[in-house]
Specification:
Elements lengths: L1 H4 L2 E14 L5 E17 L18 E5 L3 E3 L2 E3 L6 E4 L2 E13 L2 E12 L1
Length: 117
C-alpha cells in the first residue's frame, strides 16, 4: 500500500569522499553511483515556515518519504545522510533521516532535504 503513495521517480546520487582536498580546502567528493527510486517529495512553502523554528528551514527545502530499502542493481540500497536527491530539475542533500515504525516493523523513512543551488 505504501508503494501507491510513493509515486515520484527520483534519482539518488551517492558520493564517496576522499582524503584529498580541493582548491577551497574541502574534501573532494566523487560520484559513486546513481539509483532511480520511488519516493514522495514535499517542498517547503512560505506557509509551512510558520511551523518551524526561524532559520532552520528555507523555502525550497523539502521532506522526502522513502521506503526502508530498495533493491537496485542487485544491491540493497538505503538512503544515507549526504546523499543527493534529484527530482523535477531540483537537487537536495539529505541532512537528517527519521525512521517511522508500524509496531515493530520499519514502515518508512522521512528525510529532511536541504536545497542545493
Amino acid at each position: 500500500m505504501l508503494r501507491k503513495v510513493l509515486k515520484k521517480q527520483v534519482t539518488l546520487k551517492r558520493y564517496s569522499v576522499s582524503k584529498k582536498e580541493d582548491a577551497y580546502g574541502q574534501a573532494q567528493r566523487t560520484l559513486e553511483d546513481t539509483y532511480s527510486l520511488e519516493a514522495e517529495i514535499q517542498e517547503i512553502t512560505s506557509e509551512d515556515l510558520a511551523y518551524f523554528v526561524p532559520g532552520t528551514v528555507e523555502i525550497g527545502d523539502a521532506f522526502g518519504y522513502f521506503l526502508p530499502s530498495y533493491l537496485k542493481k542487485g544491491k540493497t540500497i538505503t538512503i544515507q545522510v549526504e546523499d543527493e536527491i534529484v527530482w523535477n530539475n531540483k537537487t537536495w542533500r539529505i541532512e537528517r533521516i527519521e525512521d517511522f515504525y508500524y509496531g515493530d516493523k520499519l514502515w518508512y523513512k522521512r528525510a529532511f532535504l536541504k536545497r542545493v543551488i
